[in-house]
Hints:
This protein has 80 residues and is an alpha+beta fold. The chain has a domain at 7-57. The chain has one helix at residues 36-47, and strands spanning 7-8, 15-16, 26-27. It has a three-stranded antiparallel beta sheet with strand order 1-2-3, with no helix packed on it. Strand 1 and strand 2 form a beta hairpin. The radius of gyration is 15 Å and the shape is elongated.
Amino acid sequence: MLANPAQVCPLCNATIDPALGSANEVRFSAGANGSRAKLWARVCQYAQERGGCINSNPTLRSEPNPTDFYGEAPPIELNP
């Protein structure tokens, strides 16, 4: 039996699998694997109020990098 089996978040359906290594331990529902910090930056910080988040323990994740967050959308110029 694994000491830290994979878990699926009931809120966002991301899978956290510590066996994949810290940089790739999160499988998002779409896109490439990432870290707990990226999951926190993009999803958990907004969903945690609903309860049930499996990534709420700050000791298990590093501080998010600026690239972990979604960037600002480019400005849209409208012609008058």
